[in-house]
Structure formats: C-alpha cells, structure tokens
Design a protein that fits this description.
By secondary structure, the chain is of the alpha+beta class. It contains three helices and two strands, in the order βαβαα. A two-stranded parallel sheet has the order 1-2.
Length: about 55
C-alpha cells in the first residue's frame, strides 16, 4: 500500500513534476517561492534587484 503525498514543492525540475503527477495525481503541488523570486529578480538589472525585492 503506498502512502499518499500531501504536498510537494518544486524548483522547476519539470521531469520531477511529470513523474509526481503520474504517480501521485491526488497530491497538491506548489512552486518554491524562493526559487520563483530568484528567477524573477534575475530578469531585472542588478541595479534594480534590491528595490524590486
């Protein structure tokens, strides 16, 4: 009997999410807010990153 995964945090590894969806389709998924913030900040010039953050 497999245990249910309640929530998983992702960092952008799409293969992990595809597998998780296939095996634990009932689980909730959430992207890691720290990775998301870092990725968004990278799109701004370094001189503006602190202000945007």
């Amino acid at each position: 009997m497999k245990k249910n995964t309640v929530i998983a945090l992702k960092d952008g590894a799409m293969g992990f999410w595809a597998t998780l969806e296939e095996i634990y389709s009932e689980s909730r998924q959430q992207r890691c807010c720290m990775h998301k913030t870092c990725n968004v900040l990278k799109t701004f010039p370094k001189s503006l990153q602190a202000k945007v953050k």
